[in-house]
């Protein structure tokens, strides 16, 4: 709980990394687009920090990702459409940020999703009926 600063660039060279748990610290900065280099990542938890900026579209490169938690940060902007390509994702926890926009109908592509935490943001529009396509 005492880690501060940004995620070091060296992390993005650890291509065999499968689990990254950095929750409940005082980390800050943006989520680098280089996160997409971690192609073996299955678990990414950065909740409870002070990350800002948008969710990088390169997260869609993490095709093995099953768990993503970025709750309780200062993230802004919409969920990128490419994010919905993460078909292995079973848990998506992005509540309590400042995310905006609508929940895309593409959410139906996340067929393995068992946890979809989006509360405490600034999303608008309706709940897509495509959510019913999730098993």
Automatic annotation (TrEMBL):
Source species: Pseudictyota dubia
Keywords for the protein's UniProt record, in alphabetical order: Repeat
Keyword hit for Protease: no
Pfam families named among the record's database cross-references: LRR_1
Name of this protein: Uncharacterized protein
Keyword presence, Calcium: no
UniProt xrefs under InterPro entries: Leu-rich_rpt, LRR_dom_sf, RLP29
């Amino acid at each position: 709980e005492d880690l501060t600063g940004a995620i070091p660039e060296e992390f993005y060279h650890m291509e065999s990394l499968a689990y990254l748990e950095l929750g409940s610290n005082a980390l800050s900065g943006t989520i680098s687009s280089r996160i997409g280099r971690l192609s073996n990542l299955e678990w990414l938890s950065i909740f409870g920090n002070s990350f800002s900026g948008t969710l990088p579209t390169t997260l869609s490169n993490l095709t093995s990702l099953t768990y993503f938690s970025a709750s309780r940060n200062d993230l802004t902007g919409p969920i990128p459409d490419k994010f919905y390509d993460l078909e292995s994702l079973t848990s998506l926890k992005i509540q309590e940020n400042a995310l905006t926009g609508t929940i895309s109908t593409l959410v139906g592509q996340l067929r393995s999703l068992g946890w979809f935490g989006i509360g405490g943001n600034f999303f608008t529009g309706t709940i897509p009926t495509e959510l019913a396509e999730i098993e």
